[in-house]
């Protein structure tokens, strides 16, 4: 397994002086994903927790429906003599899942033109979602406090300053698991893959992400069944509409001074302040 960081010696500049210093930098590698011996995608990822990533990616991209659809999986080298060489994830999935993936790829390859083609692709990108089912009830203060404590759990980001994190938190505020990656989508996929492997029920807690929240992040959480998603940065209108349609609670700008609840269709967040 590749080391998560590399070393560099940049010249550090400040208005009053400059010097050379050894610094840790985040590593990123290409990861090729093959399903039933057919290449599907190459993703740039941080080279750790890759098993979590390939499982979470497979689920949130609609390739599989649950972990039992993966019959076997391996992660190996591409055998190229390069210090930045990639890895290859080979997954054997059930015939039904592979047929669905094959039909989807062939339908994309057969499209031409523009206009309606763009609409067609958007409909495939935003796959229909079932409403999130959960009886979760959580205090606003718990979500806010857990986001403030997440920084201490970002081990690799503390070293390099370059990684996003995604975390799953219990209703009492206990951070149950954290995954990091150079990509915000990857970090969330890793978190979901970890939860799949360890049978952590998505309906029983909420997710935190140290990034902005575009529609893909909502879609990933909703497809797995996480009822509440809180982001440290901004969200988008499409993310809000998607969250409403999926009965998912969406929080953004969860920072030291407070947070914004953009969507809470099932009233999962409890407020202590009067008048709210």
TrEMBL record:
Signal peptide: none annotated. InterPro entries: Cytidine_deaminase-like, FdhD. It is found in: Cytoplasm. The active site is at 114 (cysteine persulfide intermediate). The gene is fdhD. This is Sulfur carrier protein FdhD. Belongs to the FdhD family. The keyword Transferase applies. Pfam families: FdhD-NarQ. Required for formate dehydrogenase (FDH) activity. Acts as a sulfur carrier protein that transfers sulfur from IscS to the molybdenum cofactor prior to its insertion into FDH. SUPFAM superfamilies: Cytidine deaminase-like. Keywords: Cytoplasm, Molybdenum cofactor biosynthesis, Transferase. GO terms for biological process: Mo-molybdopterin cofactor biosynthetic process.
């Amino acid at each position: 397994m590749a080391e998560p960081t590399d070393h560099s010696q940049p010249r550090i500049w400040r208005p009053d002086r400059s010097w050379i210093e050894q610094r840790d930098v985040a590593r990123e590698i290409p990861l090729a994903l093959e399903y039933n011996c057919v290449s599907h995608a190459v993703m740039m990822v941080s080279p750790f927790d890759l098993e979590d990533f390939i499982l979470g990616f497979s689920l949130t991209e609609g390739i599989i429906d649950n972990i039992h659809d993966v019959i076997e999986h391996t992660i190996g080298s591409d055998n190229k003599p390069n210090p930045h060489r990639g890895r290859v994830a080979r997954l054997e999935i059930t015939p039904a899942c592979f047929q669905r993936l094959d039909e989807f790829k062939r339908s994309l390859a057969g499209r031409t033109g523009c206009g309606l083609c763009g609409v067609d692709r958007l409909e495939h990108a935003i796959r229909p979602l079932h409403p999130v089912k959960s009886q979760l009830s959580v205090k606003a203060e718990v979500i806010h406090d857990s986001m403030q404590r997440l920084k201490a759990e970002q081990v690799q980001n503390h070293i390099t300053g370059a990684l996003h994190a995604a975390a799953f938190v219990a209703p009492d505020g206990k951070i149950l698991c954290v995954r990091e990656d150079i990509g915000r989508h990857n970090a969330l996929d890793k978190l979901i893959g970890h939860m799949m492997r360890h049978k952590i029920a998505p309906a029983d807690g909420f997710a935190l992400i140290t990034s902005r929240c575009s529609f893909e992040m909502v879609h990933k959480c909703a497809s797995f069944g996480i009822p509440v998603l809180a982001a440290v940065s901004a969200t988008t209108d499409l993310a809000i509409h998607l969250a409403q349609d999926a009965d998912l609670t969406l929080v953004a700008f969860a920072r030291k001074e407070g947070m914004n609840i953009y969507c809470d269709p099932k009233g999962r967040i409890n407020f202590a302040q009067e008048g709210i």
